[in-house]
Amino acid sequence: MTVISRPKAKPADAIKDASMAKQKEMVNAHYDRLASARENGEKVAATFVPGNLNELLMCFDLVNNLPEVNAIQNGLRRQSGAFVMEAEKHGHSEDVCTYVKSDIGMMAKGNIGPNGKKLPDPDVLLLSYTGCFTFMKWFELLRKEYNCETIMFQTPYMADGKITKDMIAYMVKQLKQDVIPKLERVSGVKFDIDRLREYLKKSAKAEDDLVAVLQSAKNKPSPIDAYFGGIYYIGPIFGAFRGTDAAIDYYRFLREEVEERVRQGKGPVTPDGDMGKERYRLVVEGPPNYTNFRQFWKMFYDEGAVVVASSYTKVGGTYDFGFRHNPDEPLESLAEYCLNVYTNRNLPMRVDMLENYVNEYEADGLLINSIKSCNSFSAGQLLIMREVEKRTGKPAAFIETDLVDPRYFSAANVKNRLESYFQMVEQKRAGARAA
Amino acid sequence: MRTFIGIDLGSTTTKAVLLDENRDVIGRGITNSRSNYGTAARVASEEARIDGRFTLFRRALHAADPGHERVQDFLGALERNFRLVQFLEQLDDLEETCNGQLRSERFAAVAGGLREALSEVFRRLRAEAPELYAPGANRKSDFFRDIAGSRFHAHAEAVAKDAGVPHDILLNAYDKSIIEVENRPPGGDLSEKFRRAMARVLEHDPHLIDGEKDVAQEIERTLGVELEETYLVGTGYGRVTLPFSKEHIRSEILCHGLGAHMMYPKTRTVLDIGGQDTKGIQIDDKGIVENFQMNDRCAAGCGRYLGYIADEMNMGLHELGPLAMQSNRPARINSTCTVFAGAELRDRLSLGEKREDILAGLHRAIILRAISIISRSGGVTNEFTFTGGVAKNEAAVRELRKLLKENYGDVTININPDSIYTGALGASEFARRAVMS
What we know:
The structure holds 2 protein chains of 2 kinds. Chain A is α/β, with parallel strands linked by helices. Chain A contains 16 helices and 10 strands. In chain A, strands 2-1-3-4 form a 4-stranded parallel sheet, with helices on both faces. A 4-stranded parallel sheet of chain A has the order 8-7-9-10, with helices on both faces. Chain A has a two-stranded antiparallel sheet with strand order 5-6. In chain A, helix 1 runs antiparallel to helix 10 (245-263). Among the domains of chain B are: 80-182, no CATH class; 267-415, ATPase, nucleotide binding domain (Nucleotidyltransferase, domain 5), CATH 3.30.420.40. By secondary structure, chain B is an alpha/beta fold. Helix content of chain B is 55%, strand content 12%. In chain B, the strands form 2 sheets. A 5-stranded mixed sheet of chain B has the order 7-6-5-8-9. Chain B has a 4-stranded mixed sheet with strand order 3-2-1-4. The interface between A and B is medium-sized, with 24 and 19 residues.
C-alpha cells in the first residue's frame, strides 16, 4: 500500500493587528507582575472573571489572578490537556469543568503559569458568585490548598429578569459588612471610597470604547469578529485592567483601529490576514474552544463567516444595553455590574438578548457552541436555540466542543456541522429569493 | 444527453445517482468504499451509468408497455450476461495480478507450483461463473471482492493440496492481489461490454428476441446516445478527500434532506443512520433543511455497531435483523458503545439469554439513541422518512416504529427500497440545479 506523506509544514505565524499585539503585551506584562508579586511585596487576590471587582481590589493594592484566564491561556498554549489529565489522576472525574481541572492540574504540577514562571499563592480568594455554582466548589478546593482568607460575595440570580432595590441593598450590605473589612484585613490597606470612584470613572471611559468596538459589527462588512476577535478585545477589561489608564489607552487605540477599518470598508483581521468576502453573519452563544482556537476560527473565516455578536463576550459584564460603572454610586454600581453579567441572567433574558442581537446586527442566524463540561452554560441551550429560531425566523445550529480539554474537540465533526449550517443558510436564502 | 451525477461517499459504501434534465433518476450505482474514495467514486458512477443504459434500453424498447414481458426477460438476460462479462474481465485482471505477485521473493520458492495452482483455481472460477449469473441465482453480494473472494476460498484448499503448495500461500497471493485489483479504476469500453453481452444472449437465448423487431438495432442505437456528465456533486464522509472543488461539494445533511424530499415530498423529518453517523434532519415543504442534529465525538449506535455485533456473533450483517425479529422479549441494553457491546453480548450469553433477545435489545438501543438525536433536532413532524443502510434492517425498523408511536403517536413512516441512495439523489439534484437554474 502506498502511504502518502506530506511534509510537515509549520503553521505560519498568526497575523495580528496592532491592537492584538498591544493586548498580548498587556497580558504578558500582567503575568510578569504576578510572577514577581512576592519580590515586589504585592499581595494577590484570586477571583473569577464574571463579577470580578477589579476596581475594589485595586483599592487594596491587590493584584488580581484569574484562574479561568490561566486555564484559557494554557488552553491556547496547548498545555491544558496535560493539566486536565493530571487533575483526573487526583480524582477529578471526566465530566468536571475543564477550567477547574486545568487549574488544579497546573497547581499539582508546580503552579507554573502560562508564561513559564511560577504563580504566587493567593493571599485571598474573592468569590464573587454570579451564577456559576462550579466556582464555589472550585474555591473550596483552592481554600483547602492555600488555607487563606476566603470571601464569598453573593449576587442574587436574576430569576425574574429584573434588578430590584433590595438586591442592590443586599449586595451593598455584603460589601460594607463583609467584603471590604476582610480585604482591609488581608491587605493592611484602609478602604478609600474616593479611590474607588476614581477607578470607576476610568472603567466607564474604557467601557464606552469597548461598546463602540463591539457595536461596529453592525456595519457591513463587519470590521471585527465579535467572537474570535472579541476574545482579544474583552481580555483587558474582563481581567486585571478594568479601571486602569492602560485599559483606557488600549480601548481608545482599538476603537480607532476598528473605525479606520470601517472607513476602509474592511472586514476583520484573522490569523491568516484580512478576511475575504463576508458571506455569513452569525450570532454565537457559548464560550469558544481554546485548545484548537485557531483551527476553529479558520473553519469560519475560510467560509466567509463572521460573528457579529456573541453572548460570551458579555460574561465579564454586559455594557451594550447601557450599564456603565458609576463613580457617583460606587458600591451600588459594583452590585449592578455583578447582577448584569451574562452568567447571572435567566433563560428568558438570554433569549431576549440573542434575539436582539440577531435582529440588531442583521445576522443570518444563531450558532450555539455547547460546552461539554460546562453544565452551567449548557443547560437550556437547545431551548434557547428553538426560541430564538422561532422569534427571528432565522436558522440556528448547534455544535459541541469543550473549553480547554483537547479530547473533546473533534475537528472533522465540527467542520462538517458548520459547513452544513452555512450551506443551510445559503439554501434558505436561495429559497427566500425564489419565493 | 445531459446527465447530472450525485455521489455519496459513505464510510462503508459509495453510492451514485444519475439524473436527467427532467429530474428523473436514470441510474443508480453502489460499491464498497474500500478506503480508496477516488476509485470508489469512479466505480459507483460507472455502475450508475450502466444502470442508466438499461433505463435507456427499457425506454427504447417500451419495456414497460403491457405485453412486453418478453422484452423484460430479454433485458434481464442482457443484464446477467453483462454482469458475467464484467466479472470475467475482472477475473482476468485478478489472475494476471496474482501471477505478477509470483515474481516477488516471498513466492519465489514455490512459484512453479503456485502458478499451476492459480491457473487451476481461475479455470474453475471461470467455469462456474455462468452459473453465478444464471437466472434466479442467488448471490450474497454484488461486489466483485465478495464474490471472487468467497469462490476463491472455496476452491483454494483442494487445489493447493493437489498442486502440493501451501494453502496459506495461495490465499496470500489472492489477498495481496485483490486490493490492487479493487483499487484500479474501472477500465475498458462500456459499449463493447454491452455488445459482448448482447452476443452472448444471441448465442444462448436467441428465442428471447425471436420475432421482436429491431431489438439489436435499438440496443446499438441506444448505445450511441452519449451520457454526457454535465455536472457532478459529491457528498458524504469521503467528499473532502476527492479533488472536487468547493462548488461541487454539498453537505450530506442538505443532500439527505433534499433526497428524502424528492422521494416523499411530504417529508418533514428525516432520520439517517449510516455507517458512522446518525442524523436527525428537519426539512420544509421544499426539502430545505430547517434544523439538524447528529452524533459527534462518538459513533455509538451507528451502522458500524451492527457490523461489529455481526462479527462478534460470527454472522452476516444481513442476518442480524431476521434473527432479532424472532425475539418476543428484547433484552434491556443501555450501552450503545460499540466496544462494550461485545462484552455485554458475551455476558448475557453466559447468563443464558437467547441470542435473538439480546440482538433485539441491541437494535432497540441503537434506535433509542437515534430517537434522542431526532428529539434534539426538533422532534418528529409528519411525514417521517428513514434512510441509510440501517433502514434496510427490519428489526431496527420495528423498534423505530414502536418508539415513534410511543413518543409521537401516529406518524407516516416512509422507507424507500432505494433509501441507501437518498444522499446521492439529493446531490444529483443539486448538480442538476447548478446547471438548470
